[in-house]
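Quick check before the chapter quiz. The format below is the same one you will see on the exam, so make sure you can read both the input and the output lines.
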Amino acid sequence: MAENVSDTPSMSDTRVGNDPRIPTVVADRVDIVYRVNGTGAGRGSATAALNRMLRRKQTEKASGVRTVHAVKNVSFVAYKGEAIGLIGTNGSGKSTLLKAVAGLLPVENGAIYTDGQPSLLGVNAALMGDLTGEKNVYLGGLAMGMSREEIKERYQDIVDFSGINEKGDFITLPMRTYSSGMGARLRFSIAAAKDHDVLLIDEALATGDASFRMRSEERIRELRERAGTVFLVSHNNKSIRDTCERVLWLERGVLRMDGPTEDVLAEYEAFTGDKSDKAKPKAAQPS
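Here is the expected output.
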């Protein structure tokens, strides 16, 4: 039976053998399937459409519904304190898997178990374009479960972290006036103001200048140190190297490799022929 399960009571007490780590996300043989309506699939009355849905398994071909198997039999376990990169070529299922972990997509087969509440941050996540940046900070904070007092206390840090006021008082302007990079930086800054059980980031570090990327990477390290788990989807291998010690490589929906960052990226870069971002030594981290 397919299921998405959050806050599984026993997970926080789970140990595998003598492994002292605490699992936060368990994906168990997960399949995710999209169904796309083809020609004629949307015609007729609502009653007829409902009947087609109830008979979906038998009538998909006749009604013009095409299935896309986006994620295929994927299994992994994530632990507290890990930062895990998700890589793969376009259409490999990375963002789809992230949405399923967040509980935004159902799984066709298998199950996803999470300990705590996953929070998905994507550069395309919509705030309210007609509201000012200031009001969106409060809206986003409330949506993450923060109180108004907490948001007020952290408001200036959020604005300063985003850097959107460096060239003017943009925080008082409607979000629709922001560039895509400004919007992405503000979204990340709002999400980063709260400690998360599981934080899911979709390409957020690909925007902004080098200074903002460094601040973002440092913030991810802080989240990990506070016992959270971070997933990062990115096409930027340097961001993966600088942020993650483990990588999941998805290709055409299949988990091809799961292991240490350098091992997986070496295989991935050989697969894609990308020689532009070979391993560079990381800056020393404070002890």
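If your answer matched, good. The radius of gyration is 21 Å.
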